[in-house]
Design brief:
heterodimer; A: alpha+beta; four-stranded antiparallel beta sheet; 4 strands; rod-shaped; B: 275 residues; mainly alpha; 10 helices; 71% helix
Chain lengths: 399, 275
């Protein structure tokens, strides 16, 4: 029986190793420069992949990077409405945080990071010069001397942040640039722009709320004026200030005349009983009775002759009067609702209250060199470790 | 390498050439592919519905949970669609749970495979987790399609759904590596993993949205990398209809660290493993 064993190259006697084709690969040509570089790099993978980039970053950040100064401002957006208080957990969940979130504040935050703000800022300040100051380093500064709006906004968003805190409702505006006074000026300008935005929004809200009420008032006023005009026209046409009043006056006249006539008749009858018919007193009384009777007849004739016209006039005049009353009521209610709308709009007005004015930085907070270098080192080390482990796992399949 | 000419003394003495890295990677791919197929057959067999269970499991669970909450009729803050919220909260959680829960038995149940030279523990873990990820992603696609057809709301950014699920898978894979490495040393992991995954359900982030919470709590909750994954998925589905907050680089960092430690632990565990 033969036992076959696998011959291991190590068990070869040393003098045979030189001849054995298994252990000796023969003359190997010197690898090319690229191959040597690859072998060299493979042997120094960790220093090359982790330490060298970290060192480069450290040299740049500690040695060459220009300091960046940060200016911070804080503001709060408030309305006049009292905030809802006493929210339980249930209410908080139901309200979904939307009730806490003031959409006005979010609007202002979005505006601060928008191309609109960048454009407005560019019109007021030399924004591009500020970010291309001679002391700025080549990596952190704005790379283009005439950037497109999008590039400028992307850069702007890196340098300017606005954060809204839901709990306190405070928005924190942070501006970075290469000079402390630049940062402060930029932050101040941005605050001013936000205030303008808030005012614009207010104006718009107010206009919208009041427009309808104002139109209502104008319509009521026009109606009242039209009625007043119609009444004036009527008076001029009919030569009568108030047909109702004149009819009443005429009737009153007749009543008075008839009273006097009755009195005169009674007096005449009384006198006729004691005196002769031709005494001067009787004659005088009779004349008076006749005069009065004639006057009564005349008055009656006058009223009855203009009777039809007068009742028509009366009807029209009363219609105009009612119309005028209606128009007056309408005007009064429209004015009241305009007043109410004005109060409402004032209550809905939003305000930007500055809490922290932008300050002038005395110490350059950015770039955070130590933190950044540590972070780069950790990231690269983790990545290197992962890659090493994965590749080692792969190599196991090659055995 | 040029072969030295001359007669070989015997074939037995010849050591195989070490493969290049690329060839090794190809071998690993093939191994993982084969393991995937094997995993499919061993887990589901060829009986009754077979592979269909792969999709049905997450789909049924997610669908039932979504339906229960839908029928309960309580609306969600922010006007989120109830059914899609619960389904999209549950399915990524299902992925996380099944990857993590299967980790303690991953080595034990596949120990016999390790007699093969070219199969490593990592291959087994990768094959299992990839299968899980593909299954759950399939279930999610079915749900997204069904929701889209039923309610007419399609995902705003489908890529973000996939991104969220992929990040969740990588996270769970890292945790799974750590757990399976630990299970080599002690059985404790097998006992408590299920409990821990269930107990951590409220803080993983599947059933709440970050913007429902006050800012202070939000900051705390966003330390959990899984919360970010759920938020990414929701951002993909609902878009700007609801505010979401997440940080992809943070999740990536967490996943990288977990995987680094997991791989290292697995390397250590392999040496101490008694096969």
């Amino acid at each position: 029986m033969t036992i076959w064993t696998r011959r291991s190259p190590l068990t070869n006697p040393p003098e045979r190793a030189g001849i054995d084709p298994v252990g000796w690969s023969g003359p190997v040509p010197r690898p090319s420069a690229l191959g040597r570089l690859r072998r060299w790099a493979r042997r120094r993978a960790f220093p090359l992949a982790v330490l060298l980039p970290t060192l480069l970053a450290a040299v740049w950040l500690f040695g060459f990077a220009a300091p960046q100064f940060e200016s911070e401002a804080r503001f709060i957006i408030r309305t006049r409405q009292a905030p809802a208080t006493g929210m339980g957990l249930e209410a908080a969940l139901q309200g979904a945080g939307f009730s806490r979130t003031s959409e006005d504040a979010l609007g202002v935050r979005d505006y601060l990071e928008s191309h609109d703000a960048v454009a407005a800022l560019r019109a007021r300040m030399p924004l591009i010069d500020i970010y291309r100051r001679p002391e700025a380093d080549v990596i952190a500064r704005l790379w283009w001397s005439d950037p497109s709006a999008e590039r400028l906004r992307d850069y702007f968003r890196r340098m300017v942040t606005a954060q809204y805190d839901q709990t306190s409702g405070i928005t924190a505006l942070k501006v970075r640039s290469f000079r402390p006074e630049d940062s402060q000026a930029l932050a101040a300008e941005l605050l001013a722009l936000s205030e303008q935005l808030v005012n614009r929004l207010n104006l718009r809200l107010m206009e919208d709320g009041l427009r309808v009420a104002r139109e209502e008032v104008a319509r009521a006023e026009a109606r009242l004026a039209a009625v007043q005009g119609a009444i004036t026209g009527f008076r001029e046409r009919e030569h009568s200030l108030d047909p109702g009043r004149s009819a009443a006056v005429a009737l009153e006249n007749i009543g008075k005349l008839e009273g006097a006539l009755a009195g005169a008749r009674a007096e005449l009858a009384e006198a006729g009983r004691f005196s002769r018919a031709d005494t001067p007193r009787i004659l005088q009384l009779r004349n008076r009775v006749e005069g009065l009777a004639q006057q009564v007849a005349e008055e009656r004739a006058r009223i009855s002759s203009s009777g039809a016209a007068s009742s028509q006039q009366l009807g029209e005049f009363e219609r105009l009067g009612t119309e005028r009353e209606l128009a007056r009521t309408q005007l009064a209610s429209a004015t009241a609702s305009l007043e109410r709308a004005r109060v409402d709009a004032q209550r809905q007005q939003i305000f930007l209250l500055r809490i922290v004015e932008p300050h002038r930085a005395e110490w350059a907070r950015y770039p955070k060199a130590t933190e950044t270098v540590l972070y780069i080192f950790l990231c690269l080390a983790v990545g290197y470790g992962l890659a090493w482990l994965l590749i080692a796992g792969m190599r196991e399949h090659a055995a | 390498m040029p072969e030295a000419p001359g007669a070989m003394p015997s074939g037995a003495a010849r050591r195989p050439e070490p493969l290049t890295l690329r060839a090794a990677a190809r071998v690993q791919r093939q191994v993982i592919g084969a393991l995937l197929l094997r995993e499919l057959s061993t887990r589901f067999g060829r009986e009754n519905l077979g592979f269909l269970w792969l999709f049905l499991e997450p789909a049924l669970l997610g669908g039932t949970i979504g339906l229960v909450h839908h029928l309960s009729g309580r609306g969600l803050p922010g006007g989120v669609d109830v059914l899609s919220f619960w389904v999209l909260g549950y399915i990524p959680f299902f992925l996380f749970r099944s990857v993590v829960n299967r980790a303690p038995v991953a080595i034990v149940s596949n120990q016999s495979l390790l007699y093969h030279r070219r199969i490593t523990i990592l291959d087994i873990m990768l094959a299992r987790d990839l299968l899980e990820g593909a299954a759950v992603l399939g279930a999610m696609a079915v749900f997204v399609l069904a929701i889209g057809l039923a309610t007419g709301t399609w995902p705003e950014q489908p890529a973000k759904l996939v991104l969220g699920m992929a990040l969740m898978l990588v996270l769970a894979h890292g945790i799974g590596l750590l757990i399976s490495a630990g299970s080599v040393y002690t059985e404790m992991f097998e006992r408590i993993t299920h409990m821990v995954t269930y107990l951590s359900l409220p803080i993983l982030g599947s059933f709440f949205m970050v913007f429902w919470l006050p800012t202070e709590v939000q900051k705390m909750v966003l330390w959990m990398p899984t919360v970010h994954c759920f938020e990414i998925v929701r951002d993909g589905q609902f878009g700007s209809a609801v505010p979401t907050s997440y940080d992809v680089s943070y999740v990536l960092t967490c996943a990288a660290l977990l995987n680094l430690f997991g791989l290292a632990a697995l390397r250590k565990a392999r040496r101490d493993m008694v096969v």
